[in-house]
Amino acid sequence: MSHILARWVNPHPGAASTLTLEVIMASRRLHRIGFDPRLAIGVVLIIGSILGVWGVVRAADRSSPVLTATSTLSVGDTVTDDDLAVVNVRLDSAGERYLTALPAAGLVVTRTVFAGELVPLSAVRTDAEVQVSAVVVPSSLALAGSVQTGSLVDVWSAEQQEDGSFAPPTVIVSDVSVVRVVEQQGLVAAGTGERVEVLVPTGRVAALLAALSGENAISIVPAG
After folding, report:
1. What local confidence, expressed as pLDDT, does residue 176 receive?
2. From edge to edge, which strands make up the β-sheet containing 132-138?
3. Which of 17, 35, 151, 155 shows the greatest Cβ crowding within 10 Å of its Cβ?
4. What is the signed CA dihedral for 200, 121, 75, 158, rounded to 10 degrees?
5. CA distance 149 to 35
6. Cβ partners under 8 Å of residue 86, min gap 6
7. Cβ(77)–Cβ(91) under 8 Å?
8. What is the value of pTM for the model shown?
């Protein structure tokens, strides 16, 4: 541009200062259109901020895949791939309590798992591990409304003393799954408690039967 100024011959000398000013302004405009390092720095900072936020979010996402029931799984059901779906949830250390894969040996449900519920490892066993027996237990007290098929209950027993009173109750079996609540029918049901069929671990069946054969007061309450 300086070359243009040096060779410029103005036919109208009176307008020389005006023309020179216009040329200088045009030169500055051309300079502004060129590369601006401040713009590049701004772009780099924006991209860096986006990547930084993405990295923080990714580091905070500690979700892991676990299996959930696609439909209600009842006690005794054999679990198949069609019964399960994979979901990603954040459970931290609690994730060890839930099923993450279906073993080749297959699984059997030992307590009801409702549709949409994460499948607890405590609710399933392999065929070889299923060692439970179904026992019908009468309850001396009315059942809570929450006691129904698939719920978990504790069976309490209070031993009758020689004077007819009862000792403080103790838990015979805990966290056993309800197969069904047996309906009482006819006059036989009058004045008696309700009966519940539960799945009892094989190792606790003898103790439960001993309590049932005596004069113990048996109560069934929701596990908690």
Report:
1. 86
2. 132-138, 195-201, 170-182, 152-158, 217-222
3. 155
4. 30
5. 75
6. 65, 66, 67, 68
7. no
8. 0.54
Which one, of 65, 117, 68, 63, lies nearest residue 90 by Cα?
Answer: 63
Using DSSP, state whether 40 is helix, strand or coil. Answer: helix
Cα separation, 23 vs 17, in Å, equals 10
- pLDDT at site 84: 93
Q: Look up residue 19 and give its two tokens.
A: 């023309």
d(CA 102, CA 34): 63
pLDDT of residue 15: 47
With 0-12 CB in 10 A as exposed, 13-18 as middle and 19+ as buried, what is 220? Answer: buried
Our CA dihedral for 157, 108, 73, 70, rounded to 10 degrees, sits at 140
* Cβ-contact 116, 69 below 8 angstroms: yes
Q: What is the pLDDT of residue 48?
A: 82
Long-range contacts of 121-130 (CB under 8 A, 24+ apart): 121/97, 122/97, 123/73, 124/79, 124/99
90: part of which helix (H) or strand (E)? none
Q: Divide the 224 residues of the chain into consecutive groups of 10 and give the mean pLDDT of each group.
A: 44 51 56 64 83 67 82 84 89 77 84 87 76 88 87 90 88 88 64 79 89 89 86
- What is the per-residue pLDDT for 2? 43
